[in-house]
Structures are given as C-alpha cells and as structure tokens.
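The data layer described in this paper is built around a simple, fixed record for each protein. Such a record has a labelled line for the sequence and another for the backbone structure tokens. For reference, a complete record is included directly beneath this paragraph.
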Amino acid sequence: MNVDIEGIIQCIKQGDENGVQIRLQEFNKEYAQCFFFDTEERERRRQRRLEEFRKNKVRDYTDSDSDLDEYDLEDRGLILRQNLGVVLVRFIRTEVKCHLLRVCLRTLRILSRDQKVLGPLVTDSALLTLAKLAGLTTSDISDEVSDPDSDFYDNIIASLTETKVLQGHTNEDEAEAETNDQNDEPPAFDEDAKSDISITNSGDLDSISWFGSHRTSINELHRGGTHHRVLERGRRDRRESKMDVEEEVEELESGEEAKRKEAMKVLCNVVYNSAWAQERFSALRLMCGLIERVSSSVSWSNPSSAQFYELRFMFLMTALRPELSTQLKQEGGVSILTAALESCLEVQWKDQYECVLVPQAQPISLETSQRVTEILKILFNITHSTHKQDPSEDDAALYRHLVAILRLCLMRKCLLSEDTDELQGHTVNLLSALPLQCLDVLLTVPLEPDSEKCEGVNMDCVHTLLMFMERRLEAGDKIKEKLTPILNLLTESCRAHRETRHYIRKYILPPLRDVSQRPEEGTTVKSRLIRLMTHLDTDLKHCAADLIFVLCKENVSRFVKYTGYGNAAGLLATRGLLGGQGPRTSDTQYSSDSDSDTEEYRQVKDRVNPVTGRVEAEQPDPMEGMTEEEKEEEAKRLIMLFNKLSRDNIIQPMGVDEEGKLVPMSGLKENPLSEEARSESENDGETEEGDKD
C-alpha cells in the first residue's frame, strides 16, 4: 500500500486541502476495483515459505490461509488503512469543501470493503456523521471536537513511524535469515508492540489508533465471524460501475447530491459487513430519517442519483434487522414504497385496479429497473408474513393497488433480457408473499384482440408467468432459489382460480397421446417438472409435485396416470395417499368433470406400466411351465427369505395403514410376514420336539 498517510496528515494539519485531495485521488484510482487488500502480501509470504520448504525439505508445509491472523499484525498496509480510516472519519466532521468531502467519502467506501478496517467506521459518532452526510439526520454530533488538535495527528504520525521502524527490523531479520539459509519465521508484533503503537492520551474512541490496547475488546468483537463478512467481489453493480468509470458524468451532479450518494455507499458497505453497525443503526433510530428521505423523493420529477443507494440501504436494513422491517411496515412502508414504485414506472391508471399497458412503450431503463428491483425487495421483506393472513378492507385495497402495478412489472420489458428476468423474478417473489385473495386483480383486466384467454378470462399475466417458469426450468442454475417461488405461486393460483388451472393444465398437462417414453423423459415442461419430483431437495420436489397434483384436481389415479407411480410415491407418502384416494388435503372444491382420454391412449391403456408410466416391452413369463404347486412353493420361499431379512434387521417391511401412510408391517393388524414367522417358528418347534422324542 503506497498511500502516503503521513503526507495526508501533514496536509490536513497545514490546511493544504489540495494536497489531501491529490493524494486521496491517487489512492482511489489505484484501489477502485480492489476487494482483497492483502492478496499480494499473502502470496509473497506463501512463496517465501514454499521456497524454504523446497530448500530445507521441510515436510510440514501447508499451503493454506489458516495462519493469516498471525501475519495480520505485521502487515503495515493494514495498519496504514486502519489509521487512514481513523483520520478520515475525524476529518470529514470539519468544514470540508464539497468536492474534497466526496473524495474522502470515496476513500472510506473503498476502506469499508475490508472487515479489518471497519473499526473506526462502526462507532456511534462515525455512523451519525455518515448519516448526517447522507441526509438521514440533521442533528449535530454531540461531544465531538469539530477541530481536532494537532496532538491527535502528531500521535498518529509517531505511531506510524514506530511501526515503520519495527517493520524495517523485521525485513532486516528476514533478509539475514534468507542469507544464512535459516528456517526461522519472521517475528510478529506482540501485545506490547500493539500497546506501544496505540495512542492512549485521548478519551475519544475515534482518536485512538485502531491498533491500540483501548480497542482490544471492540476489535475482537468485530473480528468475529458472526459479526463480519468480507465484502467479496460478486456480480458487479453495473450502475455503480458506470458512474465510477465515467467520472466526468459525476461532475455534472450537484455537490450535495454527490455527497449524499457517496455517504450512502459507505453506509451500505458498513452495515453489510458488520452486525455491530446494524445494531447501532437500529439503536440510534436512524430508520425514521431513511423513511422520510424515501417518502419525500417520491414526489420528485427527477429522482436523485442517491435514491438507488437509499433504497439499497433500506433493503439491507430490513433484511438484516427484523425490528426495522416491522417498524417500516407500521409506519406505512407499503403505501410509501407502492407510491415510489408507481413513480418509477410512471404509471397511468385506466381503472381502479388497472394500469395502462402500452405495447409500444419504451423499455425500462437500467437505472429505473434497478430502483424498481430494490423497491420490490424491500416490499417483500415487510410483507412476507401476510400471505396466510386475512387482510382488513383497507389493507386489501392497498394490496390490490400494489398487485395492479406488479402486473405492469410482469408485462413490461427492460433494455436487457437479464434485467427483465430479474425484474420478473422479484415481482414473482412479492406476489407469492401477498394475500392470495388480492391476486384476482391479475385476471380482471378486459380482453384485448390478441390476449391469451381461457373461458372469457384474460390470461396474459398467467401466460407470462408460465413463460418465466419455463425459462427458469431451462436455465438450471440455482434451481431451488429461482423455481420455488414461481411454483408455489402457480400452485396457489390454480387452487384459487378455476380458469387459471384450466389454462395452465392445457399448457403443462395436455391430454396423453404418446406413452412410449417415461413421463420424466424429454424436454417438455411436464417432463422437466416430473424430473424435479425426484430431486434431492425435499422442498423443491414437493413444490413441483404439488403443482402437478393440483392440476390433476388432487386426484390420485389421475396424478399417477400422468407421472407414474414411481415419481408420484414421494408426494403420496407424504400426504397419506399411498392406499389410493383418501380425504382431501385442501379445502379446494374442484368440478366433477371427467378426465377425457385420447383415442391413442385408450388403445394402449391396458399395457401401460403404472409404476413407470409408459408402455413396456413384453417380457417372457418367468413362471411359464411351472405347476400350481411349484408356484406356491416359490411364493412361500420368497416370503421366508423376506422374513429372514426382516428378522436380521437388513430390511424393514413397510405397509400402508388405514390412513394411507407407510408404517412398519409389524404395526399392522394383519401382517402376512408375521403370520408366516409364527408358522415357521411353530414348525421349527415341532421339529425340535420330534428330534427329542
């Protein structure tokens, strides 16, 4: 790490803001894409140890990161980053020019990716400072020094100088060890060294170097795995990447807006990485300011570029802190976010619960689609528990209003197909969380000449959901996460709406014609769903089976006909239906219309194997040529073999009880194997008595 932190501090002391800005900009440019600060240092140490292993034939070398904690203390780059965080958190509380403030915040954002540097950023004063810069609070930071004294910076410089000396001694020792071909490990800082580096003459936590002894307990708290996660490089935020690369675009933003955006980015990183920061944000009651910010931005004709990060931050807090999710819902979060969603999509109303859908409308822009996605995620966080609830009249009207807008989210397209898929995915998640009786809005839209329809009902939305499910089935990645919501939504919709069930059944379960293949073979939607019925994941296989079972009107014989008994056994066993049609497992009332078979199916119906669900090739009779007595003896021999396996606990014979559930055969009232066992035991006893006589 080549950043000249001593130079930055000297510039701050001398009031040379231009010098501070130049040095921080160099740091930001070098580390803008950096998510792992210690990679080069780790690799250097690993290579050195590997060379020692080869030279000295040491066999206990392990190429792992298990000893990284030992090396953290001797990493001067880490110490520099920690102290840079301390200095900048203190510096941004002073009267800093807007452009320099934005540069400082960008540096803090880069530092906040590293869990080892979060210490200075998770104090109450730091969180309140960032919240004020982000526009979440207007209160001044109490008990803080607005103009840090020179001793603060002098002590920081002194500690860094001492660290540099210690590091120099370490490097000299390493060089000497390598010269003499010795296998000694480089010395690490001990607890005394840490105390020497620390600054102990200030009561302000942020005035102490984060390596100090005064930080030990809090530092240990934040180093724990339960409190921190490393912000790993994942899917790149294309909106943020675009703004970071094209800095000239940022120059066009107002200073206040750019400042809020950078502060929100820092807060997002900090709360994502630190459970302590999440707890303090909740305790400081900063959620009220965030709700007010989002609520006030709804009426703006041109949304602020910081709005996306405000929404992202709200999503993180409602996902990570359940009490904040409850608070947002109680303070009218559903109506606020519904209004924000309506504003983003520029919704025009045709009727009370019908939005105007223009087929020739421009695709949703990247920025808009990302804001909409964040809103949908927040709404899911605060409504996921309402699915099974009976809403009040006012809540039902609010949810129907929201569902009408969600229909627009399903039907509209984005500039990129992957954005469309993501938008539809989050829309499906939210629809599956809302009360089922409020989803009728999706079907009440009047028919158009080119509409998909079933029995006079508009099925455009249902068709879109089917296409979405089919794409997810074909993709095959993250299958449980991506398929479970849409399968549950379609299943519940089929139970609630007869027309929806008829339409989906025609698409997924058309009348059987060709039964030469197993039901799970092929590339149709039906075959893909049936394959999922034997998936290793229990939740996923039950979701797929439930959908097909409902499409079969929860009729066991019809279900087995379309899937084969082998594929259907899992769901039938779970619901106690192995013995055939039992009591209905849901309150849904289905019509009594019969399942009409095609002529092709009738011709081969008697030859279909009910277990595999297909017509099997004719096999020779294994008992051909055997007399009735021989067949009976063979049957008895098989029963005795099964009984022996059961007695030796190699297998456990199971049977179906009166409730249609699998139970051990020993628990059944009539157990042929038990009777055979008793008979066999009696025969053995008679034989033994005969031998005695």
Summary: The longest helix spans residues 150-179. The CA atoms of residues 609 and 615 lie 6 Å apart.
